[in-house]
Amino acid sequence: MKEHNKAIKKVVVAGGGTAGWMTASALSKVLGKLVEVVLVESDEIPTVGVGEATIPTLHIFHQLLGINEQEFMAATNATFKLGISFENWRDVNKDYMHSFGFLGQSCWAAGFQHFWLKGMKKGFSSDIGDYVAEHLGARKGKYAALASQDLNHAYHLDAGLYAKFLRNIAEKYGTKRIEGKISQVNLNDKSGYIDSITLASGEIVEGDLFIDCTGFKGLLIEDALHTGFEDWSHILPCDSAIAVQTKTVSKPIPYTRSIARDAGWQWRIPLQSRTGNGLVFCSKYMTDEEAKQTLLENVEGELLNEPRVIKYKTGTRRKHWNKNCVAIGLSSGFIEPLESTGIHLFQKAIVRLMLMFPSQGIKQADVDEFNTQTRAEVDNIKDFIILHYHLTDRTDTPFWRYCKNMDVPDTLKHRMSLFKESGQVFKKAEELFGEASWVQVMLGQGLMPNQYHPIVDLMEDEELVTFLNNIKSGVKNKVDNWPDHNDFTQHYCKSSIV
């Protein structure tokens, strides 16, 4: 029997953390009666664990696992997230919000932005965010998770606690955890597939399918299989981050703050009992010490730990599934945390693997389709992140001048030109970010379309005013009925962590 026709009876997840335990919990819950799931991790190896913000797609994963939102939030010290505030990105002292939720009301031929654009030209539109409930709620600090409304919220959470929460689920459904450091990956002489991994203790863990969740190192997908890495440093130049936690000094707000600095940007993520802080920066324009100083000068509250530096390279594996190894998590590549897409990519890879699960043996067609879909998704997210850096009026530092003038992918150039010339945004099926996201960020970064769709002119001015005002008042009424975000959080999912 050829190696690739071997039925998959045992899955070995190499590495824990968020990616590892998300993978193990999902595989055990869905496929646990068909396959054995083993997870290998070492208590001695710390996880990166600074990705503390998510996007609304996490609801899909939680529904799959049957997770109760209140229990999850209480266990992970979580707060609600309705969007991201981008401060100093377009230019110094120019801010905007990219929120979740639905933008106004569209028609079959034109997105809401076309009606809004005509209103702006005529002088009776207000800020684009006034037509999105989550946008207004974020600004007013109000939110409630109600059974009757769409799941357009995400979370700020403690990544370490989230991994523990998922571990309990995984073990409940039969995942076996093995403690130990991986010292060697053993390949089959004939097929080149992974036969087993050897731990520092000498224990050998055999498997049929291996999931590489070993972080940036990529011990299986790269060190053993030499899959190759596509470097994106020329278009996503930040290559370092400093992270630190602080005591909370004010009530948590329902959005992430992303504050552009001289050679990168600072995050501020409010949990119930503490705040996650960090600075993403480019080492070509700022030293580690300068970055640390910049961060510490711009945090609030007492430090809860020592600032730590994380080095990384933006890019993606040339294959995310190679032979009998699938890379999930940071081992598959890293875009950067600007739009909180990390955990989303973990879950999409997990769901994609389960859809194509090779129970009767690994088939090249499945491998190729997995890699094609993954690549299309990461390319779309990559373009969206580059947009924030490239579409800027900032020329005050060498870093921002580089970003403004760098040559960006043709796919992004096309999106920007299309929006500038006609106000149009088209979303392909496999793309994560929809029309509302692209519109908010392009407008926020200063790209105003030259024209709107002619169908809008079928509305008389008076009718357009009524149309816009009805949407705006509907949004206001909805948000007025929401309680204070912090009050609701304390009532709904109060954390036991002090």
Short description:
This protein is an alpha+beta fold and about 500 residues long.
What keywords describe this structure?
alpha+beta, single chain, 21 strands, 6-stranded mixed β-sheet, 7-stranded mixed β-sheet
State Rg. Answer: 23 Å
The biggest beta sheet reads: 7 strands, mixed
Query: In angstroms, what separates the terminal alpha carbons?
Result: 57 Å
Summarize model confidence as the mean pLDDT: 95
Beta-strand percentage range: 15-25%
Task: Give a verbal description of the structure.
With 498 residues, the chain is α+β, with helices and mostly antiparallel strands. The protein is 36% helix and 20% strand. It has helices spanning 17-31, 58-65, 69-75, 112-122, 133-140, 159-172, 219-224, 288-296, 342-355, 364-390, 398-405, 410-422, 435-444, 461-480, 485-493, and strands at 10-14, 36-41, 79-81, 83-91, 94-99, 154-156, 176-179, 182-187, 194-199, 204-206, 209-212, 229-231, 240-247, 256-261, 264-270, 274-281, 308-311, 315-317, 321-322, 325-327, 333-334. Helix 1 runs parallel beside helix 9. The termini are far apart. The mean pLDDT is 95.
Secondary structure layout plus pairing:
Layout: E1 10-14, H1 17-31, E2 36-41, H2 58-65, H3 69-75, E3 79-81, E4 83-91, E5 94-99, H4 112-122, H5 133-140, E6 154-156, H6 159-172, E7 176-179, E8 182-187, E9 194-199, E10 204-206, E11 209-212, H7 219-224, E12 229-231, E13 240-247, E14 256-261, E15 264-270, E16 274-281, H8 288-296, E17 308-311, E18 315-317, E19 321-322, E20 325-327, E21 333-334, H9 342-355, H10 364-390, H11 398-405, H12 410-422, H13 435-444, H14 461-480, H15 485-493
Parallel strand pairs: 1-2, 1-11, 2-7, 4-14, 11-20
Antiparallel strand pairs: 3-6, 4-5, 8-9, 9-10, 12-18, 13-16, 13-17, 14-15, 15-16, 18-21, 19-20
Helix pairs in contact: 1-6, 1-9, 4-14, 5-14
